Amino acid sequence: MSPLLPKEESKGHLLSGWLKRDTPKRSKIITTPKGDVIKKANHPHEPEKRLVRCFDCNHRQWVPISAESTQCGRCSVYISMGDLVIKNPSSQNIRTRGDVTVEKRGSLIGCDIACHNLTVMGQISGSVDCSGVAHFKHSSKVMGSMHCKHLIIEKRCEIFFPQGVMAEEVDVYGTLIGNVLCSGVIRIYPTASVIGDATAKSIVMKDGGVLTGMMSIRQNLDITLPTKKRSTGFLTDTDAAEDDEDQL
Ligand SMILES: [Zn+2]
Question: Which residues are in the CB-under-5-Å shell of ion ligand 1?
Fold first, then answer.
């Protein structure tokens, strides 16, 4: 006869219950609906932190949400965390890990954009490195490379990526022209058209959605941005693999 145990423990949860009691309390890591990776504080005096990726070496580190800037722990580059709203035409390069919003009358033409979340209601044309959500609400053309965590293209928007787009997750409600490399899932909604080749871990076609091009399903697709050479040294891919936080 089996020993007297609480009902759920007798069903094989005994070990997991024992582990839970003996493991020290770890900070809770969550992904917000906006796509931010947040480390919750264990104690009230600890700040809540956000995962921030370096522009140059791709090193990821935890930074208090309220911080206005930080420095890369590996390559020492300065990282601004300030938000920017573009209300007028501009061609200045942008380097922040805060959020960038391009308003209806604003535009970013012929420049490099590095940011966390990017919301586009005006025109942009350049290279984009977006560590959060790139949300297109207006037709646009991204002439350079486009790299983001989560790409969203709204209804009635036509976005042209001549050099293709790399993302971890893609939601298309409008029209995407260009090749897509996605390490996660591409969702093509009933109002959407993807004109180009789509390579992803999985592709969800909703009834009415259009895909004109090749469809390839690939596991373990690596879309990591190449690290940039810096005058202080040369960072290799081996450096990147050595860091635990980079695996997040
Ligand atoms: Zn760095």
Answer: 54, 56-57, 59, 72, 74-75, 77
Nearest to 165 by CA among 118, 210, 232, 209: 118
- Going from the Cα of 235 to the center of ligand 1, the distance in angstroms, rounded, reads 9
Give the Å distance between the CA of 65 and the centre of ligand 1.
19
Helices then strands, each counted (H, E), the chain? 2, 23
What pTM value is reported for the model? 0.80
Asked if residue 89 is part of any domain, the answer here is yes
Range of the domain at 66: 37-71
CB 194 within 8 A of CB 188: yes
Give a yes or no: residue 225 inside a domain.
no
Q: Summarize pLDDT for 199-213 with one digit per residue, the tens.
A: 999 999 999 999 999
56 Cα: distance to centroid of ligand 1 (angstroms): 5
